[in-house]
Amino acid sequence: MFCPQCGREVKDGDLYCSSCGYKINHPKRNCPNCGGAIDESIRVCPTCGYQIPQPKQQVYAPKSKLVAGLLGIFLGGLGIHNFYLGYSSKGFIQICMFLGGFLTFGISTALAEIWGFVEGILILVGSIDRDGNDQRLY
């Protein structure tokens, strides 16, 4: 590797050029086409001209506060509103509680229903205003 400032050879682990003191930015990855070292922010490989693919941003569909609230009120015991909002672990626990009512003489089913109803109300009044991906409910 050579110093971009003065052109002298720089050892691979050095952070600064020993001749001119220029701060060396070490490449973070390699070009998938030619294998040449490239910086993390670069979009086109300076060696071969290959267009470097950029990582895709995950896009999430916005969730409705009204839909989530109504699902919580009417189907809250099954945890459907939590699955809709992306809280699948919480939804699974509510389904297990709902189905576990056979073993607990309906007590866990009643608790799951109350839990879902209360969450539905909290969603509608705005106390719960984010989905599982930390996106605001509309």
TrEMBL record:
Keyword check for Secreted: no
Subcellular location: Membrane
DZANK-type domain sequence ranges: 3-49
Residue ranges occupied by any TM2 domain in the UniProt entry: 62-106
GO cellular component labels: membrane
Bilayer-spanning residue ranges: 66-85
Main location: membrane
Alphabetical list of InterPro entries matching this protein: DZR, TM2
Membrane topology recorded in Swiss-Prot or TrEMBL: Multi-pass membrane protein
Keywords: Membrane, Transmembrane, Transmembrane helix
Protein name stated in the entry: Double zinc ribbon protein
